[in-house]
Amino acid sequence: MDLPLAFNSELATQLFVNGLTLGSLYALIALGYTMVYGILKLLNFAHGDVYMVGAFVGFGVLHLFGGPLSPSIAVALLITLMFLGAMLGAGALGVVIERFAYRPLRDAPRIAPLISALGVSFFLQNSVLLLFGASFRSYDSFVLGSAHPEQFVPGPLSDAVFVVNGVRVQLVQILVLAMTLGLMVALTLLVARSRIGKAMRATAFDREAAAMMGIDVDRVIASTFLIGSMLAGAAGVMFGLLFSQIFHFMGFLAGLKGFTAAVVGGIGSIPGAMLGGILVGLAEAYATGYAGGRWSDLIVFGILIFVLLVRPSGLLGTRAIQKV
Amino acid sequence: MAPGGDIPDLPTPPDAVDRPRVGVDEWVAQVEERRDRYTGLAGLTRRIASVVPAPVRLGLFVGFAATLPLWMGRGDLFTYGIFTLLYALLGLGLNVVVGFAGLLDLGYIAFFGFGAYFYAELSSEQYGIHWSAAASIPVVVVATALLGLVLGIPSRRLLGDYLAIVTLFFGQAFVVFVNVGNPTVAGKGLTGGPNGIADIDPLDFFGYELTSRAQQFYFLLLAVVLVLVGLHFLSESRTGRAWRALREDPLAAEAMTIPVKRLKLMAFAFGAGIAGFAGCIFAAVLTAVTAGNFDLPLLITIYAVVILGGFGSLTGVVLGAIVINVSFQFLAPENPQDNARLLFYAITLLLLVLSVRPWWRLGAVVGGIVGLGFVIQLLVEAVAPSWTGGPVVEGGRLAGVVKEWVVITPPGHGRFGSFAYVGLVVAILILTRLRGWIRTVAVVPVVYLAAVVWENSFVEQPAVARWILFGALLVTLMTVRPQGLLGTPRVEVV
Predict the structure, then answer these.
(1) Contacts of B57 (CB under 8 A, 6+ apart)
(2) Range of the domain at B359
(3) Measuring CA to CA, which of A11, A93, B178, B257 is 20 to 30 A from A210?
(4) Cβ separation A41–B161 shorter than 8 A
């Protein structure tokens, strides 16, 4: 733990960029948590593992087209395909999980779906362990020079690191930020403007009343899981591109942090999840930078417990009133 | 059904299983003793269980357990005897929090770990402190209970799910703290980091040391019996009834002037204390603790123990601990896979017997499965002989039959096992959606596929397979029988 003696603006800016990138990942995961919680009042513990499966589907698509060293199609197209594959795969997985693990329990005591979710999470982790083994899988030189800038593999994207005033910004980071922004805008529009978004809001407000108004509640819930899981799948590929290494257990911690983000922002609130994700990402980046990596997780958990104790409804959430 | 029976039954709606059971007030039915007579094996077990009173059940359990050291080897006594009792002890503590009081505590294992580490600090070379177990166990138990109280304080404000997540974070924070944090105290890492703490003193009471496995086993048995008896009286007491009221409906309980907050804290402290006690014994028996012992897999295992038996049932916890630990050890990588294989085929057969009726249909299904195996084996040998005839992993009693019956791909077809596994998961999910005779027919290929997956990938990685099965077990139990094997069903009264 070597605390910097003087405030170093270069380091601070670098950490800000890193934190923002990390935060957009957490925000994408948090959106899935918050949407499902808003509509079902269910903590979907398996969400982190859907994100992990997304990363592995992206990995599969990458290797389907020749792997990172010798891609058989243009890199931009390949990355697009990876995102598409991961989003579709994760989305389908989310719908299946909802159908088989949560829907039969919709009227069971509250504790049952939570345990079921825990079981799904454990099942997914170990299934991937069985299929892919315990070793790290690598997105390899798609790192685009983040770890070893001197080992550039020639290619359209690989020498894409910009240095602005001593702050290194990778092209991948810009890609992640832009894509997160795009997805969030699309989601906001979908929820605010479209027919299914309206149905979602109605279902979240009162499921029974919505059903009485002729809304197909099952379909609305399934599409909520679909959208939330697609976002998580995209986040999984982003993680692979940013940090290059994926493994079967990555979803657990990321899920916890995504959940922290959702709670910090106010669970059930979509803008809250976005804000919370960015805040948690920044907190983790600064904690890693200034206090050392081994304390960063504890600091993030501490934030969550503190927020829950002081303001259980989160920053942008509304205080829930319990109806009797 | 009208008398005379001339009015035909209404056809069962296709989604009957998924329908909410609102309005089916099982509690009223139970009070008025309007209940189904369970038939078959389940009914017999139930009737026996209701006839045999609790002390006799306890006596049977203790009587059987006490003979274990006489005929088991040291290693078996350790893996089967001691670990079953440890799981039972942990399950009993968790049962107080989750089963009696209905609080979803996902940080439970951290209390176990805290107890183990605290005992290790007090009685090992780590700091050169060597307290006698007679002194350190009470101190650790009280400290763990206090820690439970501290963690319980926020729980007074938090509703169900938030409590689950805060405790999960607490559990995770404990692991991170012990493993990575490892602050330096008095010139040494407090928790030893990834290496943990080794050379922990054995349990010693007033100069008498429990060093042999048999002594440790009997001590643990005594501990389990004491806790069992204590919890039995606790659950029948005023406090126990108040906990159940709290579990069923906190708001109604509060309206009945039950001190909800104090009871929640008590449940936390009680559960934590028992976990801390189990932690002491764990540390002393293993003589070393590492952070990896107290992570998510153990939490899942203990939840499986409690859920399998049924929330709130003490007999259930003990049975759950036996079933879970024995199947767990059968699937341990260091044990011969022959046992696991036998267990797999026995359970498959048992499930078929329980679910397929009448007998001629059962016979047809089993015959179909056996026949299908030989037909597929012949086909594969004729069409693509390189795909079959792989070696049976760790042969044993069934190896000869298995080799002729199941397609085992030799090494070199690496992805076959993976595709079969994914196919099996999809097939089982589809199977749950089928009804009627189509389902009965579909069972045949699915069971055969399960055998193929078992022989091709599960047997090679039993440690992974058991976690997969545990995860699936939690989901299946929750969707099929949320009350567990011996629990009483709870319905939301609308």
Answers:
(1) B315
(2) 339-460
(3) A93
(4) yes
